[in-house]
Structure formats: C-alpha cells, structure tokens
Amino acid sequence: MAETTDSPRGEAAMSLSQATDQMTAAGQMFEIETATIRGIETRVWKNCPGSLREILIGSRRHGDRDFIVYEDERISFERHFSMAATFARRLGDRGVRKGDRVAIAMRNLPEWIIAFWGAVSIGAIVVPLNAWWTGEELTYGLTDSGSVLAVVDVERLERIRPHLDEIPYLAHVIVTSEDRGEAIDLAPSSPRITLEVFGDVLDEVAEDAQLPDATIDPDDDATIFYTSGTTGRPKGAVGSHRNSCSNMMNLFFVSARSTLRFGGGNVEGDESIPNSYLLSVPLFHATGCHAVLVVNTAAGGKLVMMHHFDPERTLELIERERITTFGGVPAMVMQVLDSPDLTKRDTSSVRSVSYGGAPAPPDLVRRIKEAFPIGQPGNGYGMTETSAASTMNTGPDYVERPDSVGTIVPVADAAIVPEDFDGSEPDPTRPQGPDVNGELWIKGPQVVRGYWNRPVETAAVFTNGWVHTGDIAKIDDKGFIYIVDRAKDMIIRGGENIYSVEIEGVLFDHPAVADCAVIGVPHPILGEEVGAVIVLRPGQSVAAEDLARHVGDRLAAYNIPKYFYFRDNPLPRNPAGKVLKRQLRDELIPS
Question: Domains of the chain by range and CATH?
C-alpha cells in the first residue's frame, strides 16, 4: 500500500503503509494469512472469528451492559444472549435445520435482532427482506429464497396475508408488533401455514439458556440480502459467515489504524462514555446488519433504535443516550446539521459521524467538525455484494481528501478496468493511474459467492473471486479510491461521457442546495441532456441560472445542466440511501 502524507493538522504519527505493516505483522491482532475460498487463494484475517455463532457467544462477556434500547425497553447483552439462544431452540422445535432459510421482514425492532442471532447461530440462512416492499414483492422474496419460516411485524403480515397460499415452502410465520400492547390477529389465512405470536414462541427465557449444538464452517451460507432492485427483479446476494466476520474485522482494523496514526482516530474523546450507536439505517440492509449490528454485538456497543429517521428525534436521542456514533447516508447527516434543534441539544458525546451509500458533499466534513468538535467524520464504500465495507476514509485523511471513499482494506484488492473489459481477471498491462477512470472491481474475503439461484447473473458479476461493482472509479497514486459514477447512471451527451456524481458534488457545494440528483433527459439529437433535481435548504432560494453558472465555473461546459427541477419534498431513495433516479425520471419527464 502506498504511503500518504501527514494530515493538514500534522497529526499523523506514521503513514498508512507503516501503520498497516505494523498492525498486520506476524503475531499481531490483524495478522494476515492465506485461505482457499471456493478454490481461490485469498488473503484473510488470521484472527477472524470462524462464524457469527462465535460472535454471539463472545457477546456474553459484555454482561449487564445495555445492548438494545427501543423506546422504553432495554435489553442487556446477557439477556439478549439468553433470548437468542431460546429462540434458536424454538426454531429447531419447528423443524428449522442448518441451511434452511429464515426470513425477517419488519421495521427495526428488538425482535429483528433476536431472530437474526437465533437463526444464524444454528446454521440457518437469514433472509432480511425489505420492509418497504409491497405484499407482492415480499411474496417474491419469500418464494425466491425458499424460506420455510418468516418472522414479521403486523404491518408486513397484513401485506403477505392475501398471498400466503402462493408461497410454496413457507410453513411458519412468527409475528410481533411495534405497538407493544396490540392484540395480534392470527386468524387463519392458509391451512398449511402456522401463525404464532413472537412472545408466545419465546415463552419463558431461562437465565442460563444455552445454544443448541451446531457445527458451522466459515464458508457456510449465512445470509441472503436482496439487492435494491432498481432494475428488474431483486437478486439475492448469498453471504457466508466469513463474509460478515471479515467485514467486522475490516472495520475494527480501520478504527485501530486511525487510533495508531492519529492518537484517537474514530474514538477520540471522553473514554468514560461507552460506545453507543444510533441505528438510523434499516437492519435489512447490509450496512445496518453487517456494519452496525454485527460490529456492535462483538464490540459491546449499545444500539439505540429509531422507529423512523427524524432529525429532531435524532438529536433528542443523542442527548438522552449519550450517543457516540451516528450517521447513515449523507442526506441524513445534513438534515441533522440543518435542524434548528442542533444548538439546543447536548451533543458533546458524539465522537464519530460515519456515512456512505451516496455521494457526500466535500463541505460536509467542515460542517461536521464545526458542529461536533471531538467528532471524526468518516466515509466509506461497500455494497451488498461486498458485505458492506471494503474501503474507509476517516479522520484527518478524510479532511484532506473529502471526495474519496478511502483505501481498500489490506485483505482485499481493488482494480480499475475498462468499462467494456470482458476478461475474468484485471489486466495489469492496461493503463493505470489517477487519471484513468474505469469500472471498480474488488476481491477479498468479504465478497459474496454470488446470487441465489441465478447462475447467469452470478457469472456476469463474479469472476475468479472478483466482483464487478458497476461503479466507475479512479485510484490516485496514494491508493485512495474516488467513485466517479454508477455505470448505469452515466449520461452520454453527443458522444461525451458525463459522470453525474461530479456535477452533484459541485451542486452540493452551493450554499442553497440541501440535496440534489443529476439525471439524463432524452434529447432527439444529442441523445441526452443533463438535468438536475434540486432540494433547497430551508429559507433559501436560488435561480437556475445561478446554479448553471456555479457548475460552469468549476466543470467543462458540457456538464452544465440544461434543465433544473426544484422540488419541496425529499428525493426518493432506496433503503441503501441511493437516489431512485428512474423514479425521478418517470415523475419529471413525460414518456
């Protein structure tokens, strides 16, 4: 890994490569070795847990510390282990065996977490389904995955109830409610499917409850996360125990390296304040599950759950629960910074503000540092197919390069290949360097094995351990990766390739712009023109001509949007935080 310069504040005690070499040396916590994964030699963390079951068992050492906070409910680590172990046994009583698929479809509730850990600990494959899906979409996910049991909340039950007879393998549905006093209607909807209340299934939980016996190998399947489905039917990315545990180690490594280099890194501040994470992203997304749930279960972090994201509620919980880390997508962070309650709440506990899933305006770094003096901003890159994080950019590195998603973790490789490349391995003889844009490919122990029952799509996206991300990127001479655009979002105007993320980055820099998205608008001669959808900050106004001039002062003329669409409502986004540009086009552009 190439060296980097010291941060603007001169805080780096050593370069990235020096810190990485020291931390990955023989005998160290982050020592690296080689393993054969599906016939491919791959670098792995030597001290990585062998399964998610091991992480759950290890979480008991955190004892009576708060683990889950939901409204007025508090569940300690020890109590959670007992509940998860009991639920695991209840699954076995209902015929669930290793390799069976157990779906979870609900809002972020404590039962989501208990069901997840109970199922993966016996070798079942958890299928987190998008709680925003319609009944038809949920039916598709349950059917496509072959789930034999589903854990749902009342709202999701009512969506799938008319379709239960259409789901061939489903035998049990266990139901909970976000309204803790609600009587759940279990009126029979299908003669072959048993409906039960979660609390009744769990029943008595013994303090000394133990997990049932199970043998789980690192490369056994653990999860099926469905991609966002912005084009065609969603595909189920099949992740292993190694994938999820490797992602956890990736994040631990990045945090520890920041501490080594900058004397505090992402955990700068009052160490008497326990780690407390505000869970504002859905658990059914890879980030919420792998990067937040699994990591905090292992590390002893308190998870404070929100019913839905609201900037004022966020600030209230930061003060009440002494939150040390919050984030989500950049738009969420910006809403918190724009909230009139920001100066009215005690936010002194915040040590880290992390986000990803969408382009982040460079000015966001400055605003975070102003609002949270001891808080370290962080950005990263990952996708469902990489089990969340593969790169991270934190602390002074991020201040220095706010438009980068950071460097690849040391157990992984990143390569830039031409967009029309049809090989199975990156070609090292192709042009490389900071001025070369191409598709980003990633290889490492966090990359999933493929798509559930989709051999054709799997073969197109995964080759020799590499995942073809579909994102257009470049890598500078220090190893920092910059996402230029999504390949499918590239605008072609008169033969000129236009990368929307560059224009969005410039628009974000305008003081009146709160959120934006750049889309292609059909043109009979040029093919496409550039359109910009703008959400203004509260109380701000700006003319389209001023925004066009703002872009033209910073980018080549062909990047200047010809069309500006101003909207009062937030931009539509999928659970991963990505703007639904197809939906925007359908709303704004007549067919």
Answer: 77-216 (3.40.50.980), 490-588 (3.30.300.30)
